[in-house]
Amino acid sequence: MSRTEMPQFEPELRRAVLAPLLEKHAVRKAELTLALPADLRVDGQALIADPGCIPGRPDQPVLVSHTSLKAKPLNTPEGRALLLHAIAHIELNAIDLALDVVWRYNAMPDTFYQDWVRIAKEEAKHFLLIQKHLVGMGFDYGQFPAHNSLWEMAERTKGDILARIGLVPRTMEARGLDASPGVKNKLISAGDLAAGRILDIILEDEIGHVAAGNRWYRHVCQERGLDPIATYRDLIVQYDAPKLKSPYNLEARRLAGFDDEELNYLAANGL
After folding, report:
1. Between the CA atoms of 12, 13, 14 and 20, what dihedral angle is there, to the nearest 10 degrees?
2. Distance between CA atoms of residues 110 and 40, nearest Å
3. pLDDT tens-digit series, residues 80-135
């Protein structure tokens, strides 16, 4: 996006994020997110009307059930492209998830909204890294089917900020911490060293994203007088969240703020 194409954002942060959130073109969504000004005022008390059509999505990829998606051998360019396309789709969803939190939930500290805008920008960076790598391989985002599980969880939890930040960053996105080392090793073994370097960048940033989820989840639990661990287990059941499966990246989870009680229980039972 050139300087002459810089958009005119709303002057207040929680309203400004609606521009990239509603944008349908995937690359443009990422670019608009990165262009969000850092110095916008925050009106944390505002109740913002739902503009509808959230999130803006491109016509492609076609969204299908996750069980209908089939992998192909990573020793083929198409097999690697399929895997990278799936990662790009997760990152695009993650942009929308972070932006959606900003406009949707009021009465949080200014730093809450600033945190999630920062996270959205890092997710946009991740999407563009993967998308450009796909283009370099002769493919592009939207070329293969994808699933909508992340946004389906966002829809189920949109009525309660505690459920949203408890089950999206702390559950769905934390699964990415667990999966990242194995995915990286597969891509490197297939000869895609550049993709391996991109995954290193993503993992480092995602630890910070999950940490923000942990921090704000505990903040809301404290405000409501709730025990974070017992409440989390209740949320898993109430919202039918996916059961976590080993192997777990316990080191990354610890860096992301999961405490020993949670990690020990996770290792023994899953949550």
Report:
1. 110
2. 11
3. 999 999 999 999 999 999 999 999 999 999 999 999 999 999 999 999 999 999 99
Q: Is the pLDDT higher at 260 or at 85?
A: 85
Distance CA 38, CA 30 (A): 16
What residue type is assigned to position 176 of the chain? Answer: G
DSSP 8-class letter at 108: S
Q: Rounded to the nearest 10 degrees, how much is the dihedral formed by the CA atoms of 55, 119, 257, 205?
A: 120
Q: What is the CA radius of gyration of the chain?
A: 18
| Measured distance CA(78)–CA(39) in Å, rounded | 42
Contact call for residues 13 and 38 (beta carbons, < 8 A): no
Q: Can you give the pLDDT at residue 4?
A: 40
Compute CA distances 39 → 10, 146, 205, whole Å.
Answer: 12, 35, 22
Do 94 and 165 contact (CB within 8 A), yes or no? no
The type of residue at 55 is P
E strands in 96-162: none
Domain spans, the chain? 1-122+139-147, 151-271
Using the structure block, give the residue that is written with the tokens 């349908």.
24
pLDDT at 59 over 80: yes
Is the preceding omega at residue 61 within 30 degrees of 0, hence cis? Answer: yes
